[in-house]
Specification:
single chain; about 350 residues; alpha+beta; Rossmann fold; OB fold (Dihydrolipoamide Acetyltransferase, E2P); 5-stranded antiparallel sheet; transport; ATP-binding; ATP binding; iron transport
Amino acid sequence: MSFLELAGLRRNYGPVTAVSGVDLAVPSGSRTAIVGPSGCGKTTLLRLIAGFERPDCGSIELDGAMLAGPDIFVPAYKRPIGLVAQDGALFPHLSIAANIGFGIPRGAPDRETQVSKLLRLVGLDDGFLHRRPHQLSGGQQQRVALARALARKPRLMLLDEPFSALDTSLRAAMRKMVAGVLEAAGVTTILVTHDQEEALSFADQVAVMRAGALMQAGSPRDLYLRPRNRMVAEFLGEAIILPARIEGGCAHCVLGAVRVDSDALRETAEILLRPEQIELEPGNADGANAVVRESEFSGPTCTLVVQVANDAGEASALVLRRPATGSPQVGTSARLTVSGSAHLLD
């Protein structure tokens, strides 16, 4: 049995369906990332789990206890759930110590010790205790918000795009710090984000939503390499999707015969390759099947548009990224080869 079980969860706002029959299981102690384009329903789903919204139908069960279901609804303040919002949502008129201590009973004999311990847990020292939120950087405010959420000793932590307002250089470090803190505390975590890289690097399980529905859930590696459909494939990273004929374990496409992860027989199909699977060998040697048509420099990498054609005269333009050092120039002939297998899309 999973720690958190969502079954048939639905939420409507008038004629608009924000969440449509979502089923999701979250294992204890794991980190799950819910991703999808803006307006797909991921934040509404988070609010349903937190108890800020009541589902129109379906159920939410946390470690065997029903939080929402037919004739049952446990309000947010009674749920053992912590929340870190996008902007931290710290109380501006309170000190950092008072913000963290907000979730600790005032009569607790070791209240100050707990506050100090939580502050150190998120990588800040006691010198911050008497500051106000406006005296902290964005990253420091998010650390305090996490400490405040942990003060309530939640069994489930919800993170609502907590890194989106941070500088790019700080986001990766913050993700790693937060993941480490929550893992050490043994807290099951759900992260809502629109950042694919963030979801893939942070989570043990990724759930992709579209138009209120859950499209696919699974490990980051499985979803990246074996997405169920084109939408999931393109949302989780750069994708090369080619028409193909499937026969004998191979996809016959503009790149020739490419191994495919299916023994199906299909006259018309679509296959997925990730750009890093395609090797590009510049030169005019025999076997060249492509020409570099465009090259865009962006510092450490170059984005290349490569036109490739097969013996049947079928042509296609592929977008590849390569290290800028030694990247082929426009007009260069090249040979393209594929590493690994293509994935057959539904």
